Each structure stands twice: as structure tokens, then as C-alpha cells.
Amino acid sequence: MTGTARLAGKRALVTGAGSGIGRTIALAFAREGARVQSSDIDLDTARESARMIVEAGGDAVGRRCDVGDPDAVRQAIADMESDFGGIDVLVNNAAWFPARAPLAEIPEGDWEKCLAVNVTGPFLMSRHAIPVMAKGGGGSIIHIASQMAKVANYGQTHYCTAKGALLMLAKGIALDHAGDGIRCNTLSPGGIATPSMIELYGTRENAERQWGAPMHPLGRLGRVEEIAAGAVFLASDESSFMTGADLLIDGGYTAR
Ligand SMILES: NC(=O)c1ccc[n+]([C@@H]2O[C@H](COP(=O)([O-])OP(=O)(O)OC[C@H]3O[C@@H](n4cnc5c(N)ncnc54)[C@H](O)[C@@H]3O)[C@@H](O)[C@H]2O)c1
Q: What are the angstrom distances between the C-alpha of 217 and each of 27, 134, 151, 251?
């Protein structure tokens, strides 16, 4: 990697890196010189992202981790220490998408799983990464939230509640660990054309027509690269005076 790489020398862990936004962030980080642990509950896709990075000339390892499992989280951080000697950047991107339902019809198990993966997961990852980050002089933690952290949506109270909680999780970490040299921010995408999004609408065209164009003043869904660009900024020293903040990249969804 060149000397101008924006993440040169950084060691990054990206959860949910086997697909969509997480995969694109992992690839973008590696292009900018970071060494990357591509982590996912699906080992095959985690390894596939790592293979893509290595083929492009970067340095990455693919590993399985269920972010809701405390033992697996501890192991993921221990692997960062044994593979790379520490951790400078953590991206809490993994998420579970519950079926839509009005609140009175949400199965209790869906509520619990949504909070376990989408809130407790980022808590656990941060909880165990922070001491290692602090030992290395600091770092940057990024929670991938959503425009749904700011506005509710019909049938998505469980998902919106979880995403809203990430904004406060970031502010709390920002206060408690600024003295350790650790910054923590959220990045909130609007509708992005990822495999999960397209699956929800059947086809890319349907997703654009039913969700992209009507809901986003810019008239379309976002691209994964547009979110990865924000993550590179938050991971890099370019955002060195930014902590406890939300970087909203939503095509104007919440402007109305
Ligand atoms: N796509 C969008 O429109 C959109 C909008 C706003 C926010 N987001 C957020 O962006 C992030 C990525 O979404 P995406 O659209 O790329 O999703 P995706 O489904 O393409 O990728 C999510 C990845 O997380 C992994 N994962 C699921 N549960 C896990 C667990 N318990 N432990 C570890 N990994 C797990 C999946 O295997 C998958 O690889 C999520 O946090 C999502 O909430 C997405």
C-alpha cells in the first residue's frame, strides 16, 4: 500500500463483513492500508471477503463470530491481538433484521433477538475491544446505526429502538473513554442497495421504485461505497475531533 493510504498501520475488525455494507467497508479499509479481520456469523462469507482483500493485495483474515455470544466476542478480540498485535478500529456493522409487524404483534423472541444482536452485540464488542485499544494508545469505534435511529417506521419499532440505542451507546463510550484516546461515533445509512434490502423487495428495481425513489429526496437507494467512504473517514485521523456524533448518509430521508 502507498504512503498516502489513509488507514496505513491500522488494525481493523469489521463485524458482519461477509455481506453488503460490512464487506464493502472491509474492502475499503484494506485499500486504505488497514489490516482487517473480516468477521461474520457465516464463516464462509467472512473468509470470502478476506480472500477478496488478499487477492487485491491487502492483508485480511476471515473469522466466525456471533456478536451476541460473549465468548465468541472475547475470542474475536483475542484473535486481533494474536493476528495483528492489537486493534485500532472496530466497526459494529452486523445486524439482524426482524420481520415487520405492528408493535402489538411483535413476537417476544424477535424483540429479544433484535436487541441481543443489534445492541448487546455492539456493547460486547466495544466492551472487550476498548481495553486492548486503550493499551495501544486509542482508536476509533463506529456503530452502523440507520436513519431509523432518528425516525420511526411502520412495523419496525424493534429495529428502530435498537438503532436508536446505538446513538446513545456511542455517546456513552465517547465520554467514558475519550481519556483513553478512543473516539466513538455512529454512521447512519439511509436505504442502501444491499442483498438484504433487495431480498426484502424481491428485485433491485422494486426496491428502487418502492423504497429508494419515494423515500429519499435524492431519488434513489444509496450505494454501499457511499457508506464505506463515511466509515473510512470515521476510522481515519481525518475525523480526529469527532466523537459521540452521528454521520448521517441517508440521501435526505430524514430531511422531511
Ligand atoms: N441496507 C440498508 O438499507 C441499511 C440501512 C440502514 C442501516 N443499515 C445497517 O447497515 C448494516 C449492514 O446492513 P446490510 O444491509 O449490509 O446487511 P447484510 O444482511 O447484507 O449484512 C449483514 C451481515 O451481518 C451478518 N450477521 C447477522 N447476524 C450476525 C451476528 N449475530 N453476528 C455476526 N454477524 C451477523 C450477516 O451474516 C451478514 O453478513 C446493519 O447494521 C444494518 O442495520 C442498512
A: 29, 41, 15, 6
Measure the CA–CA gap between 165 and 157, rounded to whole angstroms: 12
pTM for this entry: 0.98
Q: By residue range, what is the domain housing residue 189?
A: 11-239
Distance, in Å, from the CA atom of 138 to the CA atom of 177, rounded to the nearest integer, reads 9
Q: In angstroms, what is the span from residue 95 Cα to ligand 1's centroid?
A: 4
Q: How many domains does the chain have?
A: 1
Evaluate whether residue 140 is within a structural domain.
yes
The whole-angstrom separation of Cα 79 and Cα 69 is 15
Question: Given a cut of 70, is residue 162 above it in pLDDT?
Answer: yes
CATH of the domain at 25: 3.40.50.720
**For 34-56, how does the pLDDT look when each residue is reduced to its tens digit (9 = 90+)?**
999 999 999 999 999 999 999 99
Ligand 1, residue 195: give the atom nearest the CA. Answer: 20
From the CB of 62, is ligand 1 less than 6 Å away?
Answer: no
